[in-house]
Amino acid sequence: MSRPFYLTTAIYYANGAPHIGHAYEVIAADVIARFNRLIGKQVFFLTGTDEHGIKVQKTALAQGTSPKTYVDDIAAVYRQEWAYLNVTHDRFIRTTDPEHYELVTRLWNKLVEKGDIYKAQYTGTYCPIREAFLTDRELKLMQDTGEDMSKLEAVTEENYFFRLSNYKDRVREFIETHETFILPAYRRNEVLNQLEDLADISVSRSKKSVSWGIPVPGDDEQVIYVWIDALSNYLTGLDWGVDDAAAKERFEEYWPPNVQVIGKDIMRFHAIYWPAMLMAADLPLPEHLLVHGFITVADTKISKSLGNVITPKDLVDRFELPNVDPIRYYFLATTPFGQDGSYTDDDFKAKVNADLANNLGNLLNRTLNMTKKYFDGAVPSFSKDYQGLIDISELNPIREHYDNYRFSEAMQSIMGFVDRANKYINEKEPWTLHKEEKLEQLGDVIYAILDSLRQVAILLYPVCPSLTKDLWAQLGFDMDLDQADWRWINGMLTPVGQHTRLGEPVLPRLESEIVGTGGKKK
Ligand code: MSP
Question: Is the CB–ligand 1 distance for residue 30 below 6 Å?
Fold first, then answer.
């Protein structure tokens, strides 16, 4: 068996409920997890919430509650949302978990032992939105783009520093020699440029400015910088350094992460600080940082102040969706991974109707209707001339698309099969074959379509787990699609005589008139 697969998402700030942008990231990660299980890998999938820092502290205060009560509520909302989106994570980490607290302390002590942490006076410009001191380049960019600078704070404090300078060259070398470390590759230069600017980083804040955090070991006046705390979650996920034989074995097996899914806005932290921290802790670096783009609403940044926040639940309600698969499908199929994607209600409706309701839904419906009419609902037998509709050689490219995070291409190829099956029906005219009593040929045609639907169910499962399970059940299968194996696609056939179960359309056409905030095309 191949090496197990360790997959993470960013952990989400506990300062509001997740919107479709956050959902996009966790859905992409879930597709990666489901695909890798499908090809037989043992997957450990980590996600969670980032709960310390000044933003949380201020919001809780403003709401007249304690930070802990506030983050408890938000973490519960995230857990519910992830369950609602059918996310199959193995662990949900919270940075307020006691074991995380212990791990961060352990890591801090290790960096101190290495001589990589020292105390110094610091003056800089702190951005509470990003929870980061800004570099000159970032300040200039904010000025140039007219971003709101009113929340920036000039800070002079005595802080602890991490000797990034000790690792800068090694990080650069690692990025240059590991061409697939940062994916898509076109993001690498941006990181290499940022690396030029960086000096040692401040890794603590005075308790007077931020009290909601993990205390610096041995110094009651300071808390650990929220990004050091947050990045360490990926180690807590696998219980790094916990004195327990089973935990140690698991860590050895799974570390380093195969894929860390993050947004483009937090690339610097993951491509520079995080590798440096791991180098300082003498740990191997992740294989891939998979950097996705941003989801906007009609090309406008999603923001509470603009009032254009859309949650997955909003879309389910607005379009009366039977499950969240159209949401999962739409974002992955329409946004080439890595690029930004713009949501609009019109696009959503058009894409979901065209691909899922019409193309796939109709194929299933008309095929099951014919199976019922011509064969009493039982899968017909096929002749020695029988040929399937999907050639084996066409499967590998789809596997490669999934394996290389080209989800939109994978969806396009799968829909190509569905298209082909629909055209095949029109061409073969089963109704004419039936009228002319060419029953052998009729059996071959219906069988070919039923079996290609079976294959499509497995191919599409990572993105649309609910819809494909319905499809699977209507085809008459009782085995659990969650247990499916990629080899089933061409290593098995639909059993002749199996009773199909014509049911409700797996996805009714979306008809709703749009009244939401989802934006029309500009
Ligand atoms: N807490 C930090 C991450 C720490 S990871 C050690 C953070 N949180 S966040 O809630 O602001 O963002 C979490 C993830 O969601 C990030 O990867 C971010 O890029 C992603 N997204 C937030 N808004 C998004 C969109 N509008 N579109 C796509 N992804 C978005 O940063």
Answer: no
CA gap 310, 347 in Å, rounded:
15
Strands 215-216 and 204-206: unpaired
270 contact partners, CB below 8 Å, separation of at least 6: 231, 260, 262, 289
What is residue 343's DSSP assignment? E
Q: What is the pTM of this model?
A: 0.95
Token pair belonging to 511? 């008809």
Q: Is 295 in the pocket of ligand 1 (CB under 6 A)?
A: yes
pLDDT class of 521 with cuts at 50, 70, 90: very low
Output the CA 394–ligand 1 centroid distance in Å. Answer: 35
Which strands, in side-by-side order, build the sheet including 117-127? 132-133, 117-127, 153-162, 201-202
Model confidence pLDDT, tens digit, residues 377-434: 999 999 998 999 999 999 999 999 999 999 999 999 999 999 999 999 999 999 999 9
Task: State the Cα–Cα distance between residues 289 and 264, nearest whole angstrom.
Answer: 10
Question: Does the beta carbon of 56 lie inside 6 Å of ligand 1?
Answer: no
**Confidence tier at 520 by pLDDT (50, 70, 90):** very low
Report which protein residue has its CA nearest ligand 1's atom 29: 21
Relative to the CA of 302, which ligand 1 atom is closest?
Answer: 26
CB 261 within 8 A of CB 290: yes
Encoded tokens for 313: 């639940």
Measured between alpha carbons, how far is 349 from 305 in angstroms, rounded to an integer?
26
Amino acid at 42: Q
Q: For 106-126, what is the mean pLDDT?
A: 94
Q: How far apart are CA 295 and CA 297, in angstroms?
A: 7
Integer Cα distance of 20 and 309 in angstroms? 8
Amino acid found at 344: T
Q: How far is CA 293 from CA 1, 24, 25, 254, 266, in A?
A: 33, 10, 9, 27, 11
Query: Residue 517 has what pLDDT?
Result: 47
Question: What structural domains and CATH numbers belong to the chain?
Answer: 344-491 (1.10.730.10)
